[in-house]
Amino acid sequence: MGLANIRLERKQVASLGRRILNSVLFVLLGFAFSGIFIAALGFNPFTVYAKMISYSFLNLRGIRGSIMAGLPLMLCGLSVSAAFKMNLNNIGAEGQYAVGALMGGAFALYGPALPLPLRMAVMFLLCALGGALWAMIAAVLKAYWNVNETIITLMLNYIALLLMDYLCYGPWMAKRQTTPISEKIPQELYLPYLGNSGINAGIVIAVVLAVLLYLFFQYTTVGFQVQVNKYSLRSAQYAGINVRRNILIILGLSGAIAGLAGFVQITGVVHRVQAQLPGGSGYTGIVIAYLSQFHPLAVILVSILLGGLNNSCSAVQIMGVPSQIAAMIQGCIMIFVIAGEFFNRYRLVLKKPDTTAAGQAEAVESKGGVGL
Amino acid sequence: MENAVLLEMKGITKRFGKTNANDHICLRLHKGEIHALLGENGAGKSTLMNILAGIYRPDSGQILANGERVEIKSPRHAADIGIGMVHQHFQLISTLSVAENVYLSMGRTDFVINKAAMEKTIRNYSEKFGLPVDPAAKIWQLSVGEQQRVEIMKLLCRDCKILILDEPSAVLTPQEAREMFKTLRNMADEGKSVIVISHKMNEVMENADRITVLKGGKIADEMPAAEATVDRLTRAVVGSRTLAETVRRESEKGGKPLLSIENLCAGNDKGLIALHDLSVELREGEIFAIAGVAGSGQRELAETLAGMRKVVSGKITLHGKEITKTNVRQRISLGISFIPEDRLQMGLVAQMNMQQNAVLKDFREPAYSRWGVLKKAAIRTAAENYVKDYDIKNGGMELPVGLMSGGNQQKLLVAREIHGNPSLIIAAYPVRGLDIGAAGEINRILLEQKERGACILLISEELDEIFRMADRIGVLCGGRLMGVRENGKTDYEEIGRLMSGEAV
Q1: Minimal CA separation from A343 to chain B, in Å
Q2: Contacts of B131 (CB under 8 A, 6+ apart)
Q3: Long-range Cβ contact pairs of B120-128 (< 8 A, separation 24 or more)
Q4: Do the chains contact at B399 and A362, CB–CB below 8 Å?
Q5: Which of B18, B332, B360 has the CB atom closest to A363's CB atom?
Q6: A358 to chain B, closest Cα gap in Å
Q7: What span, in angstroms and rounded, lies between the C-alpha atoms of B226 and B447?
C-alpha cells in the first residue's frame, strides 16, 4: 500500500487518556532518537539508559535526589502551565525565580529577626511577590498596550539574572569568598525535612499548589473566565469579561509561583543567595509544562522525571558519556512531543472504498469535518 | 438544440465523518449555459463545487471533462482544465492592485512583472464581457461588488471555461445583483458555462437556464428553468417537511420608546469611522430591521450597542437613561442581549461544552456561583433546561459545542440570549446558515419575544426575511442610515435603492 492510500483526517476530540498515551509514545520516540546519537558516540544506548534509570529511579537515594532536583522544576513548570491556561507564553519563569529569590533573600539576609513562623511567612510572601512583580511588568505591557509577553518575559530574564550577578558579586558577596555567593541565611529559615526522608517541606508546597491550581482552573469563576479568554478573546469581550484584569491576575499568579521556586531553593537547599541560582530551571519549566499538557498534577510527575534525568547524567559521565546528554535528550523529547501533538488533532486513515466503522465521539452532524 | 456537454459529474460521493455531504450526485453542464445549484444550507452544494474546483477530492465517482475522465487534484489543476471558482469569501490581497491580484492568481513565475500588459488584458476583458473594473485600483478601495468583479476577472484571465460562483448575490444589492447576472449572461453567450450556487428561488428562476436542486446531499430535482415553478422548487428544496409557520402580527402602534440613538459615530477595527451620525429611536414590542449590503456598518452598529465598541461621539439612551459610556457587563444587566453574527467566534466558545456556554454571560450570577466558586450542578441544570425547552440536539453535555450542528448551536445561543427577558435583543443574521426548519424555529422565538414586548434589532441581508419579520426597516449604506420605512409602505425596489446609497 503506497503513501497515496493514506490520508489525514481531522479528529474531533482526543480523550485525556489518548493524549497521555500519545505523550508517552513520543517521549519514548525521543529517547530512541537520542539513542542514535549515543550510539554514534560509541556507547551502547541500552546500557547508558539502563544505567541512568537505575541511578535515578531504582533506589531510594536516587529517587530522593530526583524529587529534590525536580522541586524547583515543579514550581517553574506550574508557573508556565498557569500562564498558558490563558494562552500567555510566560517564558520568564527563570527571571521571576531570580527576582523572587532576591526579594526573599534580601529579607532573610538583612531583614528584621521576626518571630519564627512570621519570619518564614514573610520570606515566603516576599519571594512570591518578587516573582509576581517581575511578571507584572510584562503583564501590564500586554494588558494595556498589547505588547508581546513572550519577548518581554524573555528579556526580563537577562535583566533579572544580571541583577542577581551584580548583587552576588558585589554588595551581597560573603566575606572571604571568591565565589559569587552571599552569607548563609539564619538557620531558623531553613526549610524542615519531612521526617528522615531527606526531602524538604518544599515538596508539600509544590503539591499543594498544584492541587490548588487544578481546583482554581476547574471550579472558580476566574478559572472559567481564563478558559473563555484562552479559546476566544472575542467571546470574552462579548461576555463582558475583563480581559485586562485576567491577564494581570494570571501572569501575576504565574510569576508568584516561579518566585516560590526561589523560596524552596534558598530555604531548602542552598541556604544562601548565589549567582545563577535558577540555572535554567525556568526554561526546563517550559519543557515540563508542554510535556504535561499544562495539567498541574502531571507537572509534578514530569518534573521528578526530568530532575532524575538531570541527575543521572553524572552517573553516566563515569562511563565517558558527556554530561550534555541530558540537555540533548530533553531537547529531543520536547521536539518529539510537540510534533506528536499533531496526532492529537489528526489521524491517519487508510483509504478504503467503504468505511462503515463507527468513529468514537464523532461529529453530531455535518459541520465538524468540513472545516472551511 | 442542446449544446455540447462540457462537463459531467457521475456518482460523486463525499463523506465527512458519518455525514454524506454528497451522495452519488450526477450533474451535466452544457456549453453556454447558466446552471443553478439550489438547496438549503448544508444540502451539499458547496461541497460538490469544491470538489469540482479541486479543493476536496471525492470518495468515489467520476468527473468527465469534454468526455475524458479527469481527476482534479488541486485548484491549480482545476484551473488548468478550465474550471475556476469565486468563493463566498473573496481571496484577494487588499493592499495590492487589481492587476497584481489577477497576475498573482495566474501562477506565473516571470522574473519581471509586466504591469502595463496585465492592465491592458484586464481592460480588454472588461470591455468584452461588460465587467467594469479599474486595473490600477487597490483592492481595499473597491466596494464588495467591485471586488466580486475582480474575482470573476481572475477566472477570465486564466481562460476558465467553467465558472463557479458561490452565493454571488449575497453581498450585492438587488440592483447590483441584476448587473452581475447580466455579466454572467454575456459570458455564457461567449461560450462559457457558469454554475451559480444559490438558495434564492426567484433569482434562480429568473437567471438560470437549468436548475438542479440538492437536498441532504442528493439530487432532489432537476429541470430547465422554463419548467420551474416556486411550488416545484419549494417541494424539492424542503422535501416533505412541514414548515413552522412564522406569522408576524402587526405591532401596536406607538409602543413606548425604548432605545434612542442620537448622532452616533463609531469606528471599525481599523480605527476608521464606520458609523456616521446615526440617529434612530427603537420602540418596545417592535422588530426593527437593518437592511444593507454586507459591510455597511451592521457589525459596528451591533457591537457598539452591545458595548463592545467605543462610541466616538453621540449618545445612546435606554429607558430614558444614558448608557453611552457603560461597558458590556453593565449593558447585559440592563437587559441588552446580543445574538452576534459570528456564532462560533463570539456568541459561543466552540471548544467549550454546552454547560459552559449556557452560562457564558451569567456565570457570575448568584445562581451559578458563590464566593467565586462555580456551582457546577446548577450550571448543568440550566443547560439541561435549555436542551429541554428548545429541543436542542446535542451529543452529550460534555461535547464541545463546535461539534453540534449550526441549527442547534444557534438554538442554544438564542435560548441563552432571551433568557431573563431582555428588553433589547440585537440579532445579527440570526438564521444565516441554518436549514429552513431551524430558521423557522428561530424566527418564531424572535416573534414571541416581540409579542412579549421586547424590542428586536434584526440585522439581515435577506430582504425576504426582513419583509417577513420587520415592523420597520432602516437601511444602512456606507455607515449612514439612509432612511427608515414602515414595512407595508415600501417595496424591494425602494429598499434596494437605499441600500445602494441613492437618496430617495
Answers
A1: 17
A2: B125, B149, B152, B153, B156, B183
A3: B121/B157, B122/B98, B122/B153, B122/B157, B125/B153, B125/B156, B125/B157, B126/B153, B128/B190
A4: no
A5: B18
A6: 8
A7: 37
The rounded distance, in Å, linking the Cα atoms of A251 and A176 is 40
User: What residues of A are in contact with residue B346 (Cβ under 8 Å)?
Assistant: 232, 234-235, 238
* pTM for the predicted model, two decimal places: 0.77
Instruction: Give the β-pairing of B19-30 and B5-16.
Output: antiparallel
Question: Within A191-242, where are the H helices?
Answer: 202-219, 221-231, 233-238
Q: Is A119:A287 a contact under the CB 8 Å cutoff?
A: no
Which amino acid makes up residue B441? E
| Strand-pair partners of B262 | B315
Distance CA A27, CA A364 (A): 33
Rounded Cα distance between B115 and B122, Å, is 11
ipTM score of complex: 0.79
| B150, three cell numbers | 475582480
Top pLDDT among A8 and A333 is at: A333
- Nearest-CA distance from B366 to chain A in Å? 11
Alpha-helix runs per DSSP H in chain A: 16-40, 45-57, 60-84, 93-110, 116-145, 149-169, 202-219, 221-231, 233-238, 243-265, 281-291, 296-317, 325-340, 342-345, 367-370
CA dihedral B43, B49, B50, B54 (to 10 degrees): 150
Interface contact B327-A361, CB threshold 8 A: no
Q: Test B327 with A219 for CB contact under 8 angstroms.
A: no
Contact criterion met (CB < 8 Å) for A238 and B306: yes
Question: What pLDDT, in 10s, does the model give residues B341-369?
Answer: 888 889 999 999 999 999 999 999 999 99
Average pLDDT of B263-288? 89
Closest Cβ opposite residue A239 in set B18, B361, B373: B361
User: B355 near B379, Cβ under 8 Å?
Assistant: yes
Which residue of A221, A362, A367 is in closest CB contact with B363?
A221
pLDDT in tens, A176-231: 888 899 999 999 999 999 888 889 999 999 999 999 999 999 999 999 999 999 99
3-state secondary structure of A69: helix
B436's enclosing H/E stretch is helix B436-452
Query: Quick check: B253 pLDDT over 70?
Result: no
Q: Which three cell numbers stand for residue A233?
A: 478573546
